[in-house]
């Protein structure tokens, strides 16, 4: 099948035609794998679960997988659908694989990537504009969250939006907009959120689970990571880190690092914030955020990563010090 891409500025009629390709592919498939990116966040989990629940309702055999599976922050979705680690997929065969919120095929992770690539038909649904269109059918459109696209797809399917589906979609949109305060929050984003609330999305529960609850280990990690913050370039660049010794010493887990970067970003003088997290002794994940003008997707792109103008990431090899030095040198070019 010839790859296709969808952007917001194409005619609505053409967009609906291409969305119909996705619906037709789903109808013709019985065994469907839905995958997300490594270090999955709320948009990744929420998009996977909302789509997966509908496909199960249609009688499909559905498996979902991202990273090491569902993290504690999103435990409220544990009863919605099973999300397994890639290693637990074994040798299962699928008719169709759908990647959601995933900017490139390598972002599904080293274990899941070969499983993804061998499937006979691949679909990508994503809101990262750095996405090259790596599947047979690609819906890549700039929205606040992939959850917006999944909601639109479900409506095109005439799918019933249950309270659980509304919760998953609201969580997807809420987390990628920083609880609706980031610059990617649009009038359309707020309209969709209002629709989900009217359906029954449990706003108070979602905010409590995602933003107002953390383990003691995660709380200790916050303090330890904040202590690592250093400022550069007239205090416009902030770098912080979390290595395995710190994470384990605090009794935390890698998933607890997800929101640490916000503490660096919130410093009043800072334009670019970076969090360097140890994957192993020679590989590091770098999360990037900016506030007003710096394009951190461009910064991530220098190192093979990607994302959005104000939120992006990449993975680098080397020592912690080497990675920080490389990132700082490139970041200074954007200030």
How are the secondary structure elements laid out?
Blueprint: H1 12-27, E1 31-35, H2 42-57, E2 61-65, E3 83-84, E4 96-100, H3 112-118, E5 122-126, E6 137-140, H4 146-156, H5 163-176, H6 187-199, H7 203-211, H8 216-226, E7 230-232, E8 237-242, H9 244-249, H10 261-265, E9 272-280, E10 283-290, H11 296-301, E11 306-307, E12 311-317, H12 320-334
Helix pairs in contact: 2-4, 2-5, 4-5, 5-6
Question: Please, could you describe this protein's structure?
Answer:
- This protein has 335 residues and is an alpha/beta fold.
- The chain has 2 domains: 12-210, inorganic pyrophosphatase (n-terminal core), CATH 3.90.1640.10; 216-334, Diaminopimelate Epimerase, Chain A, domain 1 (Roll).
- The chain is 39% helix and 18% strand.
- It has 12 helices and 12 strands.
- Strands 3-2-1-4-5-6 form a 6-stranded parallel beta sheet, sandwiched between helices.
- It is globular.
């Amino acid at each position: 099948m010839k790859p296709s891409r969808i952007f917001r500025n194409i005619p609505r009629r053409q967009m609906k035609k291409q969305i119909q390709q996705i619906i037709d592919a789903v109808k013709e498939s019985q065994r469907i794998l839905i995958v997300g990116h490594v270090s999955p966040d709320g948009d990744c989990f929420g998009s996977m679960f909302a789509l997966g629940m509908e496909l199960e309702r249609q009688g499909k055999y559905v498996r979902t997988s991202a990273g090491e599976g569902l993290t504690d922050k999103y435990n409220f979705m544990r009863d919605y659908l099973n999300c397994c680690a890639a290693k637990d997929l074994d040798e299962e065969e699928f008719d169709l694989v759908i990647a959601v919120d995933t900017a490139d095929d390598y972002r599904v992770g080293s274990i899941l990537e070969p499983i993804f690539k061998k499937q006979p038909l691949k679909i990508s649904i994503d809101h990262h504009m750095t996405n090259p269109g790596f599947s047979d059918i690609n819906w890549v459109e700039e929205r606040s969250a992939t959850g917006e696209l999944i909601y639109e797809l479900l409506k095109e399917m005439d799918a019933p939006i249950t309270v659980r589906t509304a919760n998953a979609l609201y969580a997807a949109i809420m987390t990628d907009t920083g609880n609706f305060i980031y610059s990617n929050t649009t009038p359309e984003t707020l309209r969709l959120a209002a629709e989900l609330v009217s359906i029954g999305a449990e706003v108070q529960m979602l905010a409590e689970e995602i933003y107002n609850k953390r383990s003691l280990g995660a709380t200790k990690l916050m303090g330890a990571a904040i202590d690592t913050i250093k400022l550069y370039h007239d205090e416009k660049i902030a770098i912080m880190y979390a290595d395995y010794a710190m994470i384990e010493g605090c009794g935390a887990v890698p998933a607890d690092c997800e929101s640490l970067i916000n503490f660096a970003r919130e410093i009043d003088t800072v334009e670019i914030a970076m969090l360097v997290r140890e994957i192993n002794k020679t590989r590091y994940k770098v999360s990037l955020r900016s506030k007003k003008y710096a394009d951190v997707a461009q910064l991530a792109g220098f190192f093979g990563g990607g994302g959005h103008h104000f939120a992006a990431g990449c993975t680098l090899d080397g020592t912690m010090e080497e990675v920080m030095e490389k990132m700082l040198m490139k970041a200074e070019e954007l200030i």
